[in-house]
Amino acid sequence: MLAFVISRILQALPVMAVVALISFAMFAYVGDPVAIMLGQDFTEAQRQALVASLGLDQPFFVQFAKFLWNALHGEFGLSYRLSRPVAELIAERAPATLELAFCAALVSICIGVPMGVYTGLYRNSWLSRLFLTFSLIGVSLPTFLIGILLILVFSVWLGWLPSFGRGDTVQVGWWSTGLLTASGLKALILPSITLGLFQLTLIMRLVRAEMLEVLRTDYIKFARARGLANRVIHFGHALKNTLVPVITVAGLQLGGIIAFAIVTETVFQWPGMGLLFIQSVNSADIPVMAAYLMLIALVFVTINLVVDLLYYAVDPRLRVGGGAARGH
Predict the structure, then answer these.
(1) Are residues 211 and 117 in contact, defined by beta-carbon separation less than 8 angstroms?
(2) What's the rounded Cα separation, in Å, for the pair 113 and 243?
């Protein structure tokens, strides 16, 4: 197990280096951050002094090497737009994005898995067909349209929930949370549903497909022949064997939720990392954009490692067979 973890970490290092190079190269020649920082009225001497202080007069690979070295120490330089440390900006925005992603993932898993199990066990019932129709709507509609429709219904027409912002927050150490205030919880409902709806429908359909496949296997027929109760067969045997692919998809979707929260945060003006990234794109704030992409890559690499480790806890074949079973 330890060798496996170490090997995955070593494999992740070149991945992170390539992502850092691509992100830095992609945005290094976009826009003119010096003009953005100085405004319209500046002399050539001021421009040259700022270029030198930012290190923009150095060769590309020298700039990238310095950026990578500083990133390993948690330093991503100064934001061109706000003239503040990038690490400080991300630390301020990360709690909002992580709380939104966690609540969206919780909604998608806690609702998607039971709906998938029900539609797999009672596939001909009217409620199953209603769930499947709902899942088609969730998959088909784009995220921004879902958010706008929810705002129209629950904020404009009914006036039940806020349409933007994070509500009141409480500072717990360096972490700011809206989970401890009523307005913070209300502000979290619509963005969480918007961000988690696609994942919910995906998980529901995956669980349904896996459940239908497992129910046709020989060991389920043998369990029925032994006279086991349906509850034991469905939840003790069938559901347990559907969890491996569900864990894979749910884990990767959690990374996707964090990475693609940009649209939801923009629609609801949620003060998270996604909104910070959009604002940075508009002003060619290279350090913030590169740091954001590296952070998202790190999230995906970490989630992949956690998913692989969860396989051993869920699937007994992997614990018995070890690496050979995993390779199979």
Answers:
(1) yes
(2) 10
CA distance 90 to 294: 12
pLDDT of residue 60: 80
Determine the length of the chain. 328
What is the rounded distance in angstroms from the CA atom of residue 324 to the CA atom of residue 6?
Answer: 18
Structural domain span for residue 125: 90-325
266-297 tens-digit pLDDT? 999 999 998 899 888 887 787 888 888 888 88
Query: Domain containing 219 — which CATH number?
Result: 1.10.3720.10
Q: Rg for the chain (alpha carbons), in Å?
A: 24
325 compared with 180, residue with greater pLDDT:
180
What are 316-326's pLDDT values in tens digits? 665 555 544 44
CA–CA separation, 164 and 174 (whole Å): 23
Q: How many helices (H) and strands (E) does the chain have?
A: 16, 2
- The angle subtended at Cα 98 by Cα 36 and Cα 284, nearest 5°, is 15
